[in-house]
């Protein structure tokens, strides 16, 4: 058996605001959308998906590097983008709360942390290397 897709399902009290933020501002293309009565769902394309599992020490380390303190809930969603500072500014202008500004990490990426709609804490990251990931 092979997993063919990772789909993260998020309940959003303000559905329209959440869809607009992730689809229109962050730029995730809408693949499908369904309405049944007052039940609504939009499935947005996030590109390649991975599942990153970290132990508590690694989670605290990432928080320390990106934010300077332990802030993330158990679940945080990270989005790779081409221009981290520009995307961060666009998301903040659209209503996200910046938790930490774009920061160069020891793993050679520029990461920023935001509080986004639907109660999600997100990281926006831009890789700074070409080719294979360093050591």
TrEMBL record:
Transmembrane segments: none annotated. It holds the Pfam family Glyoxalase_6. Gene3D superfamilies: 2,3-Dihydroxybiphenyl 1,2-Dioxygenase, domain 1. Residues 4-127 form the VOC domain. SUPFAM superfamilies: Glyoxalase/Bleomycin resistance protein/Dihydroxybiphenyl dioxygenase (SSF54593). InterPro entries: Glyas_Bleomycin-R_OHBP_Dase, Glyoxalase_6, VOC_core. This is VOC domain-containing protein. The lineage of its organism: Bacteria, Bacillati, Actinomycetota, Actinomycetes, Micromonosporales.
